[in-house]
TrEMBL record:
One Gene Ontology CC term in the entry: proton-transporting ATP synthase complex
Domain ATP synthase F1 complex delta/epsilon subunit N-terminal: 8-89
Keyword Lyase: no
Protein's recorded name: ATP synthase epsilon chain
Species per Swiss-Prot/TrEMBL record: Lactiplantibacillus mudanjiangensis
Protein's job: Produces ATP from ADP in the presence of a proton gradient across the membrane.
Coiled coil: 97-124
Organism superkingdom: Bacteria
Length: 142
């Protein structure tokens, strides 16, 4: 049985609802300041997340980690529960690869056009769109 000594609860929520909830012996996220591993009973923490994967170890060590593509947001850890709040998040198996591939191509075209027009605001938006698409592709293809 999982208890507080060897597991923590992880919950991932978006405006569309809860995407994930499980017990884990370790959660690994990428914050805007670098990678953060959270073990059971970690000190309380709150951190902004990069557009990157969240990796959730399984209680049974022979099982594959769960991987979720998370679109920024933040992680808050207290009372042995990690809550991730993000604009969007997709579990590995829920990622539509063709859609992400199209989004990647669109973002690359936008980046090229913005560079030619020296449109810095559009360039930043397109670069973020590219990061979202690449993150989904990386998680889906693992
Ligand atoms: P697209 O241009 O394909 O819509 P996007 O990066 O603009 O991509 P978001 O605004 O981040 O999309 O997400 C909108 C909604 O669509 C969210 O609920 C998100 O989880 C979902 N979503 C986006 N891309 C994918 C994908 N490739 N596979 C599954 N769900 C996706």
């Amino acid at each position: 049985m999982a208890d507080n000594a060897n597991s923590l609860t992880v919950s991932i929520v978006t405006p569309d609802g809860q995407v994930y909830e499980n017990k884990t012996p370790m959660l690994i996220v990428r914050t805007i300041n670098g990678e953060l591993g959270i073990l059971p009973n970690h000190i309380p923490v709150i951190a902004s997340l990069a557009i990157d994967e969240v990796r959730i170890k399984q209680l049974e060590s022979d099982q594959e980690d769960d991987e979720i593509a998370v679109n920024g947001g933040f992680v808050e850890f207290s009372n042995n529960t990690a809550t991730i709040v993000a604009d969007s998040a997709e579990r590995q198996n829920d990622i539509d690869v063709a859609r992400a591939e199209n989004a990647r191509k669109r973002a690359e075209s936008r980046i090229q056009a913005a560079q030619q027009k020296h449109d810095d605001a559009e360039l930043s938006r397109a670069q973020v769109a590219l990061r979202r698409a690449m993150n989904r592709l990386n998680v889906a293809r693992r």
